[in-house]
Amino acid sequence: MEKEYNNKRINKSNKTKNGKENDQQNIKENKSNKTKKLKENKMPNKNKKKIWKKLLLLLLLILLIVVGVFTYRVYKNGWGLSGMLATVVGHDENTRKNLPEFKILVLGISTDQEEVELTDTIMVASYNPNTQKATLLSIPRDTFTGNNTKKATAYDKINTLYSKNKDPKAVLNAINQLTGLNIEYYVIIRNEALIKLVDVIGGVTFNVPIDMDYDDKFQDLHIHLEAGEQLLDGAKAEQLVRFRHNNNNTTYPEEYGDNDLGRMRTQREFIMQVLKQTLKPENIFKIGEILDVAKETVTTNVNFDVAKDYVPYAVEFSTENLLTSTLPGTTPDWKQTNNVSIFVVDKEETKKLVKELFHDRDLEQEENEDSEINDTKVTKQNTTSNELNAKQTTINKDKANLKIEVLNGSGVSKNLQKVVTELKEEGYTITRTGSTNITTKTTIINKKNIKDITLENIKGLLRVGRITSSESSSSKVGVTIIIGKDYQ
Q: By mean pLDDT, which of 152-166, 386-400, 451-465 is the weakest?
């Protein structure tokens, strides 16, 4: 009995021992299996990480190459915002060089009267992306487009051409004939476009030249502005550019440019300020709103492909390079023009002005040729003392009655006093002085049929200048001198 009992204890002990050994073995095997599984699971993750690293490096390399190529092209296109925009639209360093001067007819249309569209503003604008020069040439609304001034009618005025059949090409053709320019493009800007644009860019600061007080119930037009520098919103901007005269018939002072001349000058100067404001860097982010305004209120035949070629370089433009002028001519007595007030273009002076504004090289060549011709003439005139005496006698007679106005457009304040002093020392009478838009060329304007020999004498004193004619029976001066940047 005792022996059997001991055997049972031994067997139980062995079973317990074997069970523990088996349990430990199982635990070891489980741990081993888990370790293997973990290793097996880790291996693909490591491979995946290696693959992603390679892909990221490849993408980074591609990005660096793209950025490098883009940066290089921006550099070749002149750096800055202009270079970046040029690169974005696919330009290279030769694109700008091959772009011609861009010329366009600008028609400002008033739509206050139902089914009537009046041409309040007519201008020729140009932009040269290579020289960064731009031009605004105002065309008087009363410009005569007929054949016989003695039989003139209101329908012979240029501002009626568009209202007849709403065809801008009729105006375009007339201006091309008057100026000799081959303008292809036009843009029609309705008055609501101006209002919305000025409001989009946050208003325009402008120095209103005079108090403006005018009401036209028929057009529902009411203009009430005080003189002085102020921030104009869209509604006030429209009042400014449409003003011609007050309710009491007073208008701009003559030295500024009365009636339509003053109005055109105000329009040009205001456009300069609008350009300055629109081209500010902060307004680049408003380009979407500006384009929306254009889509709603502007009609043009300029297609996108043409516009995108010039836009990258236009952001470089400075209004200091903007030349402004008015088509030269005269306003004959209405009794001689069938009782119709018209503006008759001076063809010869227009040809000279167009060359100056749109063909600088041609003008410089012509001026050199003129200078040689004038030198030859002077040499011949100096051959006898009688001719010299006759010349001086004529000049002295003109000096006695001649009144001269001097306007500084050189951008250098001291030049005004310098010119005034030179003319006074020579015996000329200066009755008015002032400033005007910056212009490249000094201009001597004949307003009272002053003799050529006297005008040449004034030009000789200034050592620069081109002589033009804009005769006006109401002018209180015989000659207006506009000092340009060429004056030294």
A: 386-400
Cβ(108)–Cβ(121) below 8 Å: yes
Contact between 68 and 77 under an 8 Å Cβ cutoff? The reply is no
Rounded to two decimals, the pTM is 0.59
* Residue from 85, 468, 146, 485 nearest 307 by CA: 85
Distance CA 384, CA 247 (A): 60
Q: Which helix (H) or strand (E) holds 16?
A: helix 2-76
Q: Which domains does the chain have, with CATH numbers?
A: 96-358 (3.40.630.190), 360-483 (3.30.70.2390)
Mean pLDDT on 409-431: 87
pLDDT in tens, 186-208: 988 888 888 888 999 889 999 99
* Distance from C-alpha of 437 to C-alpha of 270, rounded to nearest angstrom: 11
Q: Please check whether residue 443 is in contact with residue 349, taking contact to mean a CB–CB distance below 8 angstroms.
A: no
- What's the mean per-residue pLDDT of the chain? 75
The closest of 470, 460, 450, 330 to 402, measured between CA atoms, is 450
Axis-axis angle for helices 80-88, 2-76 (nearest 10): 110
Q: Which single residue is written with the structure tokens 């004034």?
A: 458
For 252-287, the pLDDT digits (tens) are 887 777 677 888 888 888 888 888 787 777 776 777
Contacts of residue 346, Cβ cutoff 8 Å, sequence gap at least 6: 328, 329, 330, 468, 469, 470
- Distance between CA 111 and CA 117 in Å, rounded? 5
pLDDT at 366: 45
Reduced to 3 states (helix: H, G, I; strand: E, B; else coil), residue 384 is coil
- Adjacent-strand bridge partners of 143: 343
Sign of torsion, CA 366 368 370 372? negative
Distance (Å, whole) CA 431 – CA 101: 40
For the residues of 260-286, what is the DSSP string, one character each? HHHHHHHHHHHHHHHHHHHTSGGGGGG
The per-residue pLDDT for range 62-114, each reduced to its tens digit, is 555 444 444 444 444 444 445 555 555 455 566 667 778 889 898 888 765 55
CB 166 within 8 A of CB 116: no
125-164 b/e (C-beta count within 10 Å ≥ 16 → b): bbbbbeeebbbbbbbbbbbbbeeeeeebeeebbbbbbbee
Pairwise CA distance, residues 475 & 249, whole Å: 18
- Among 413, 464, 420, 466, which residue's Cα sits nearest to residue 436? 413
Rounded Cα gap, residues 176 and 184, in angstroms: 9
Among 413, 410, 409, 433, smallest CA distance to 423 is for 433
